[in-house]
Amino acid sequence: VFEACIFDLDGVIVDTAVYHFKAWKRLANELGFNFTEAQNEKLKGISRVKSLELILEWGGIEKTAEEQQVLATRKNDWYVEMINHMTPEEILPGTKELLESLRAAGIRTALGSASKNATVILEKVGILPLFEVLVDGNTVTASKPDPEVFLKGAEALQISPEKCIVFEDAIAGVQAAQAANMKVVGLGEQDVLGAADLVVSSLEQINMQTLTNLYSK
Ligand code: B16
Ligand code: MG
Fold first, then answer.
1. Which family does it belong to (predicted)?
2. Which residue among 2, 28, 131, 209 has its CA within the 20 to 30 Å range from the CA of 198?
């Protein structure tokens, strides 16, 4: 029924949103305005460049493309400094167990993330070897809800999209998976991710059987 699983990173495997929040808040404060957790929520799954555009818009500030480049790099330097201290304890519950049981069952695995820092994060939390293929912000040109990131993952694994299941915490990611003609499991709230084939609050609720059931509906 299914032959591959493609995982988003932030919000599915680890909660890097807390580090994004700290770094963006520091930047916003330096520019003279505030940045809230509610605003940070809206940046989930959104690329770095696009996130900065939104933050500047919320702060009512205009910057040239060159200035934006400098600001994005500054934010990323602070962010990288924080993720360099990540440990395996930061893997979200059930993630490692699920990846291991998928691999034991012969299911192929890929990462499908908007982040350009995905490799270092997976290395720091110690699960890089559990992924056969990494598709991230360095390889993708169109961001979610465009299906590119997931289609590239399926292509690299040489598995047809209908046989792939995506795990996503952001609505744009759920839409991207559906545009790719894949099944999608939403991680989060039913009222936000209701469009997904199944919504759970944690990967602890997922096993081979729950995934197989997605194909019998
Ligand atoms: P970086 P995902 C996304 O990760 C984050 O949710 C989003 O907040 C971030 O701006 C984006 O990665 C880019 O990250 O600055 O590290 O390239 O959910 O697609 O794994
Ligand atoms: Mg995410």
1. Belongs to the HAD-like hydrolase superfamily. CbbY/CbbZ/Gph/YieH family.
2. 131
Here the tokens at position 157 are 């694994």
What is the enclosing helix (H) or strand (E) of 67? helix 65-83
CA–centroid distance, residue 199 to ligand 1 (Å): 21
Q: Secondary structure of 146-205 in the HEC alphabet?
A: CCHHHHHHHHHHCCCHHHEEEEECCHHHHHHHHHCCCEEEEECCHHHHCCCCEEECCHHH
- Which string of b and e fits 128-145 if b means at least 16 CB within 10 Å? eebbebbbbbebbeebbb
33: three-class secondary structure by DSSP? coil
C-alpha triplet 193, 51, 137: angle, nearest 5°? 80
For 110-138, how does the pLDDT look when each residue is reduced to its tens digit (9 = 90+)? 999 999 999 999 999 999 999 999 999 99
Q: Which two tokens stand for residue 128?
A: 């890089």
Closest Cα to atom 5 of ligand 1? 45
> Which helix or strand (DSSP H or E) is residue 39 part of?
helix 37-41
